[in-house]
Write a structure and sequence with these properties.
mainly alpha, two-stranded antiparallel sheet, 42 helices, flat, nuclear pore complex, translocation, mRNA transport, nucleus
């Protein structure tokens, strides 16, 4: 009872303490980490004074109260204070609903922030992947353009040597390695040379079909058969031969009849597919001889029946083998049309008599009635170029629609011929060849566009070549090329749909066609020579090979020209400018063939290759350089050289301009440029001699080499101006006299010739003085008529100096200074008698220089 009283007393005292006012007592606030820190400090102090006896007493006390000391110790050590949601989200609201809404909003914001961070990280990773992929694609494209695959190799190998190293008239030594080409590329280059010569002769050369045939033969002869591919490159050339051959058979050309030419190409593409199906049937029959049971009968219908016998060998007996066998009339009709057997198709159409044309108009108009035969329709379709008359087309289209709606009405087999004849697409076309044949058959009558085929039949929509191309371009190239395993399959589809420019661009640019870059550039040149690219671009080629539409009628020609120029650079690098010229020439013809375009191509080649002798020849416009075969007319070649020379002169390319002026038999213009070059070269050579005084007299420096090269060109111009070297050295002849008289009569020629001779004297004089040979310098000074050494000639020389050639006037100050220095140097080395004469000459030259101070010299 005493213990209970003590507890009650303690409780009463606690209640009294709680009720008292502690405002005067300072309030102490501690956080949880601080409390834990203070508790650890107190425990450390008490543990120091607690002995084993006290610890044992504490354990007994806890045991009396029902506590396990060891368990209590472990729980206290592992105590973890977990914050509640109120500690994180402070309750600033007065209701539970508002508090929950606040918690929800905070949770949403946190989720949104996490999603944004993840989105940013994903976006950055995606952009890194895109940049890496784009960089790899650009690198592959760049390397493909610089060194395309299949374009020959630099260095050794068993291939024949085409490129060569040599020295042109411009003095440039080609140190590039020889270019060794494969046999296929060598044959292609020979064909290009023939094309360029034919293009330059303005007629009388090979036609586009003959050119394509030449490339096809070269490809077949030297083709490297790729393993695991069904379409070799020779088959692509063969396709072009078949398509162009149909246009030749119909005697239509691109320039004369554009629409008829396109129709002929469509028919040629369809005929190529029909011939291919004929070969496929014969191959299948040969492979399954026992099943086909093909006898010796040469009838084409027997080929179709044998092929059907093999194809449907699992269907049981067939009607042409067994009287009560499966009816294959419609199947035979389709394969006859597919193989181009028109007569066999008409014969088998007689047995296809279950066409139900319910309209009376068809019977009245001579059409097919109930129980009628398909033969009239088939004959009409084949005779009119895959097109029916309006009455037959409307009736047949209505019947095809009825058959498609009524699945239980008739057999499914007649649908394919119905739809093919009525300009619909059969559903049984399982191969790309069958698909393309059906499309081309439907577009046979309207290849040029909606308005080109006349008025469409009422109720039957016309189908044009543009729609064929649009249908094909709905799918990417991978769809046709078996996921890029057969890139030439897509090229075949483009060629069959007459998207020839797109096919060439695809071969040239796509990464999967790197082995065919060689064929791409030559295919483009061949089609450009035929003139088909411009006509097909006008029709409405979609150009889906590179994912963009064609940029106009001239885009295909511009692409071909760009390909030819890029391909020719390999020959320029190897020093074979002659071969590069043929490709540049065909590129110029693709860009219009004007004199300005040809001149630009020639100028670019001269600047890049500097092989003047190979390109221009060494004897004027009549010389037989590489251009002689391309421009056989001498006058036209002279005009070309003059135009290019003027452009080079305006573009600060004097060396090229000099060579072109000489090639154009314009030595006066060439000599005028040479004099200006020589004047500047003399100053550079003299300055270099001053900067390198230790150089031996006979040593060659860059400036001296350039000066000697210019002087050599000047001597060639002088020889061209005065006749020939033999005429100048031999006894006077009537020809040499006439040439000399012409020079004397022409003041411009005489002025340029005198300036060149005087520049030669100035060169020798200045170089001799810089080398310390002042006696030689004074000897050469006497050969300059405008420098006075006597007082009596002072006024005359001043007047002559105001009329000097600009190239001489630029070096006049150097001549006067060198003359004064040489006279001063000689005065110290001669005797007393000669000193007076040298002093008099020095005084005259000094007075001459003073007289020229106010004179206006030519610029």
């Amino acid at each position: 009872m005493a213990a209970a009283a003590d507890w009650n007393t303690l409780l009463q005292q606690s209640a009294d303490l709680v009720g008292q006012d502690f405002s005067n007592v300072p309030r102490v606030e501690r956080s949880l980490p601080q409390l834990q820190q203070y508790a650890d400090a107190l425990r450390s102090r008490t543990n120091r004074y607690r002995g084993p006896e006290e610890q044992a007493a504490a354990t007994r006390l806890l045991a009396q109260q029902g506590f396990d000391a060891s368990r209590l110790t472990s729980e206290v050590v592992g105590l973890e204070i977990v914050p509640t949601i109120e500690d994180v989200f402070h309750a600033e609201t007065s209701s539970v609903e508002e508090y929950l809404q606040q918690v929800e909003e905070a949770t949403l914001l946190a989720a949104i922030q996490e999603a944004q961070e993840e989105s940013n990280a994903s976006f950055e990773a995606y952009m890194d992947q895109c940049m890496t992929r784009d960089w790899a694609a650009n690198k592959r494209r760049l390397f493909g353009l610089i060194a395309p695959s299949g374009m020959g190799t630099i260095g050794g190998g068993p291939q024949p040597l085409i490129g060569r190293s040599g020295t042109g008239d411009g003095g440039q030594v080609f140190a590039s390695p020889a270019l060794r080409l494969s046999p296929k590329e060598t044959a292609y280059v020979d064909m290009v040379k023939k094309m360029a010569v034919a293009a330059g002769s303005h007629g009388g050369g090979q036609t586009g079909l003959e050119i394509v045939k030449g490339f096809k033969e070269a490809c077949e002869k030297h083709e490297d058969k790729p393993g695991g591919q069904d379409f070799p490159m020779s088959s692509i050339w063969g396709l072009l031969v078949s398509v162009l051959g149909e246009a030749r058979r119909r005697n239509v050309t691109p320039s004369a009849a554009g629409h008829r030419y396109v129709e002929a190409l469509v028919a040629g593409a369809r005929k190529h597919l029909e011939d291919g199906h004929q070969r496929h049937m014969r191959t299948t029959i040969t492979r399954y001889k026992l099943v086909a049971e093909r006898g010796p009968d040469p009838d084409s219908l027997r080929d179709v029946q044998a092929y059907v016998q093999v194809k449907f060998r699992d269907r049981g007996p067939l009607d042409f083998a067994t009287p009560n066998g499966m009816d294959t009339s419609w199947i035979q009709l389709f394969y006859c049309l597919r193989s181009g057997y028109d007569r066999a198709a008409a014969r088998i159409a007689e047995r296809c008599g279950d066409l139900l044309l319910l309209t009376a108009g068809g019977r009245a108009g001579g059409g097919v009635g109930v129980g009628g035969s398909m033969r009239p329709l088939v004959e009409e379709w084949t005779a009119n170029g895959c097109r029916l008359s309006e009455r037959s087309a409307v009736a047949l289209a209505r019947e095809a629609e009825r058959l498609l709606r009524d699945k239980n009405g008739l057999r499914q087999s007649p649908r394919a011929p119905y739809q093919a004849l009525a300009a619909g697409l059969p559903a049984i076309l399982s191969t790309i060849e069958d698909f393309m044949w059906a499309r081309l058959a439907l577009a046979g009558g309207g290849a040029g566009g909606p308005g080109a085929a006349g008025t469409p039949a009422a109720g039957v929509a016309s189908y044009t070549l543009t729609e064929v191309q649009a249908d094909i371009n709905r799918w990417p190239p991978q769809y046709y090329s078996k996921q890029n395993r057969e890139p030439l399959a897509f090229v075949m589809v483009l060629l069959l749909s007459l998207q020839w420019a797109a096919a060439v661009r695809f071969l040239w640019r796509d990464d999967t066609t790197k082995p065919y870059r060689l064929d791409a550039v030559h295919m483009g040149l061949a089609l450009q020579a035929e003139g088909a690219l411009a006509v097909l671009n006008g029709v409405g080629e979609c150009g889906a090979a590179d994912g963009a539409a064609a940029a106009g009628p001239g885009s295909a020609a511009a692409d071909v020209a760009t390909m030819a120029v890029q391909y020719s650079r390999k020959f320029v690098t190897a020093g074979d400018s002659g071969t590069a010229l043929y490709y540049r020439w065909l590129a110029a013809m693709a860009r219009g063939g004007s004199l300005a375009v040809k001149g630009a191509m020639l100028r670019e080649l001269l600047v890049g290759g500097r092989d003047f002798g190979t390109l221009l020849g060494g004897g004027g416009a009549g010389a037989r350089g590489a251009l002689h075969a391309l421009v056989p007319d001498t006058e036209e070649r002279r005009r070309l050289f003059e135009g290019v020379a003027y452009e080079c002169q305006m573009s600060a390319q004097p060396e090229e301009a000099v060579e072109l002026y000489l090639a154009a038999d314009r030595p006066v213009s060439a000599l005028a440029l040479i004099n200006g070059q020589m004047s500047a070269a003399i100053a550079a050579a003299v300055d270099e001699a001053v900067a390198q005084p230790s150089t031996p007299a006979g040593a060659s420096t860059p400036s001296m080499e350039r000066l000697e090269r210019i002087a050599r060109s000047g001597r060639a111009a002088v020889e061209r101006l005065s006749g020939s070297r033999a005429a100048a050295a031999a006894a006077p002849s009537p020809t040499a006299s006439a040439a000399a008289a012409a020079i004397i009569a022409d003041p411009t020629a005489r002025r340029e010739l005198e300036a060149f001779q005087q520049l030669g004297v100035i060169r020798d004089m200045l170089l001799a003085a810089k080398r310390g040979r002042h006696d030689q310098a004074l000897q050469r000074l006497s050969e300059l008529p405008f420098i006075p050494t006597e007082r009596s000639r002072l006024d005359l020389c001043v007047r002559m100096s105001t009329q000097l050639h600009p190239a001489i006037a630029e070096r006049l100050q150097d001549v006067i200074a060198t003359a004064a220095d040489s006279i001063a140097a000689r005065r110290q080395a001669v005797g007393r008698d000669a000193v007076g004469m040298l002093a008099a000459e020095l005084a005259v030259i000094t007075q001459y220089a003073n007289s020229l101070a106010g004179a206006r010299l030519p610029q």
